[in-house]
């Protein structure tokens, strides 16, 4: 696998430059390989949550890659981590996740040299908004994916999500949450308000991607915890009704971040699912 000339390294973090396209300017994306020496192994590509980044995953992607025997590819979406920040006067559009799935992610794969044969063996591992983007990518490129695991994904807007995101805004502005998130993002206000503003935008309440799931044609595991305060089982049940062959994993505990709060149960479920298909 070749790395494009547009990529540079800084310690174990690399940066890829995506050329301007219609609707966006040039972007710099931070990314990281896990077990890059496993050149023959399939790639597990990780897509983070709405406030996530490479650093916020901590060691979980490596743990899962060890279980699965895969290479890992982790990146920070534009606006997060050390990738190009969102300009403070720019609001994410209602279809921002579709834009990430259909434009930004394919451009990044091109930039780092992940070609079509590699993509056909690739797995997406997406959390929260990253889970939604994974579903949208699987829908848009059904032949260029081996499978997907989506953890606490959103396919429509629930009131529990809006309430929790509104509470997060209060915490960000009145507690030390801003300082805590600042450890993981070069421009923490860009990261937080990009996510918070769009989810609290009244127009976003109509966002719904359930109909798009019908074109997914790869193995799919959807995971949801009972005690998630950002979404309910209705999310993955809607996935099962629309995406043919989707399998569900319902966890009794794990909150909105089972990879952190119920990692053993989650890892067991993912390993069993992938192993049956190996």
From TrEMBL:
It comes from the Bacteria. InterPro entries: AB_hydrolase_1 (IPR000073), AB_hydrolase_fold (IPR029058), AB_hydrolase_sf (IPR050266). GO terms for molecular function: hydrolase activity. Pfam families: Abhydrolase_6 (PF12697). Keywords: Hydrolase. One of its GO terms (cellular component) is membrane. Residues 45-269 form the AB hydrolase-1 domain. This is Alpha/beta fold hydrolase. It comes from Trinickia dinghuensis.
């Amino acid at each position: 696998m070749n790395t494009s000339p547009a990529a540079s390294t800084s310690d174990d973090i690399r940066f890829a430059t995506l050329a301007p396209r219609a609707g966006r300017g040039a972007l710099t994306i931070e990314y990281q390989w896990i077990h890059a020496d496993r050149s023959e192994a399939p790639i597990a590509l990780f897509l983070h949550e709405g406030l996530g980044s490479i650093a916020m995953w901590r060691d979980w992607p490596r743990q899962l890659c060890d279980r699965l025997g895969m290479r890992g590819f982790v990146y920070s979406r534009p606006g997060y981590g050390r990738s190009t920040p969102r300009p403070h006067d720019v609001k994410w559009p209602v279809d921002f996740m579709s834009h990430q799935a259909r434009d930004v992610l394919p451009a990044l794969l091109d930039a780092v040299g992940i070609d079509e044969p590699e993509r056909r063996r690739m797995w997406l591992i997406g959390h929260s908004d990253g889970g939604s983007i994974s579903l949208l990518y699987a829908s848009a490129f059904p032949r260029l994916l081996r499978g997907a695991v989506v953890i606490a994904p959103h396919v429509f807007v629930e009131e529990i999500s809006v309430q929790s995101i509104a509470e997060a805004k209060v915490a960000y502005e009145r507690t030390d949450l801003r300082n805590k998130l600042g450890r993981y993002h070069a421009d923490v206000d860009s990261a937080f308000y990009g996510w918070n503003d769009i989810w609290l935008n009244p127009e976003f309440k109509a966002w719904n991607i359930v109909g798009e799931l019908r074109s997914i044609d790869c193995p799919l595991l959807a995971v949801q915890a009972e005690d998630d305060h950002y979404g309910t089982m209705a999310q993955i049940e809607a996935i099962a009704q629309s995406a043919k062959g989707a399998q569900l994993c319902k966890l009794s505990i794990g909150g909105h971040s089972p990879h952190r709060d119920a990692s053993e149960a989650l890892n067991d479920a993912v390993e069993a699912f992938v192993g049956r298909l190996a």
